[in-house]
Design a protein that fits this description.
This protein has 308 residues and is mainly α. Helices cover 69% and strands 0% of the residues. The radius of gyration is 21 Å and the shape is globular. The C terminus is likely disordered.
Length: 308
């Protein structure tokens, strides 16, 4: 019985800390992965520590967010099941846990470098401000969600001392902006299906859905265009033996962005788009195909050249 009780407590805290959201922090590994420098153990260790620091910091901000939204969450169809909203974790305990997690996050960051610590602190400040009041401003909230993803890329670059190109940040900006629009669009769908009023604290209305979809799809396709332009960059020659193979990613990206938005319009996207993607077979297959294309472009020596 005691083991069962301990397991229940553990599950409650796993849910409260949003451990499943830690998948987003894998973005910290993007700079080192795309620069093909994953074999350096010292660099790998720093990025792993950076990942742990962001996980601790992100969990702290989720606790702060739930404390801030405790009343509105209790009236939400799905958020009412969160441990703090259900009263499974007291506000006092959650507050103490948030402070401890921030201290752990900063302590880990001090072992990496000051530049990484700066980006982590910026992330913590922005996410806390977002939870308290910035998420009330329409469009600005989506820009901030996009910035949170970009900060992870900046932080990953600083942790590994790997330079990330402007192409990566340009592509990432529109790609994650598309996902941010999708997140709000899906929330409005969910609220309407549960006969709930549009959330006043978000500022969006049901009538905003066509605009959100238009901006979201446009942002996603803009990311594809930026990636296509990047394929003409001379930087590719230093990273890939057969950069021509990377053109195969264009239809893959187009398919995935189109697929994610069709799921959203059908009301099937029940959580964060990035996490939703990892949970679906079609999306996982797409990711595998993309990885195969990247590996082939890195390993195959192909000297074919298009001529006029």
């Amino acid at each position: 019985m005691q083991n069962s009780g301990n397991s229940n407590i553990l599950l409650i805290w796993i849910k409260a800390l949003r451990v499943h959201q830690w998948l987003k922090n894998l973005i910290l590994f993007l700079p080192i992965l795309l620069s093909h420098k994953l074999s350096n153990w010292n660099i790998d260790l720093r990025v792993i520590l950076a990942f742990l620091a962001f996980c601790a910091g992100a969990s702290a901000t989720y606790l702060i967010n739930d404390l801030r939204d405790i009343d509105s969450d209790r009236n939400h169809p799905s958020k009412s099941l969160r441990p703090i909203a259900k009263g499974l974790i007291s506000s006092r305990v959650a507050s103490i846990a948030a402070i401890l997690l921030i201290l752990v996050s900063v302590s880990i960051s001090l072992t990496i470098n000051q530049s990484f610590l700066l980006w982590l602190v910026i992330y913590l400040i922005l996410t806390i401000c977002y939870s308290i009041f910035l998420k009330k401003f329409i469009i600005l909230d989506l820009i901030l969600i996009t910035i949170f993803y970009l900060i992870r890329i900046f932080a990953g670059s600083q942790a590994s001392n790997v330079h990330s190109s402007y192409w990566m940040f340009g592509f990432s900006t529109f790609f994650f902006l598309s996902l941010a629009f999708g997140k709000r669009y899906a929330e409005l769908i969910q609220l309407e299906e549960n006969s709930q009023n549009a959330s006043d604290r978000r500022g969006y209305r049901f009538a905003d859905r066509p605009v959100l979809m238009t901006l979201g799809v446009a942002s996603g396709y803009a990311a594809v265009v930026i990636f296509a332009l990047y394929l003409d960059s001379t930087n590719l020659l230093n990273l890939y033996h057969a950069p021509q193979i990377l053109w195969g990613l264009i239809p893959v990206l187009t398919y995935w962005i189109s697929w994610i938005w069709i799921q959203a319009t059908r009301g099937l996207m029940y959580e964060d788009p990035l996490l939703f993607a990892f949970d679906k077979k079609e999306s996982r297959i797409t990711i595998v195909i993309a990885v195969i294309i990247l590996v082939l472009a890195s390993t195959i020596h192909w000297h074919y050249q298009i001529t006029n």
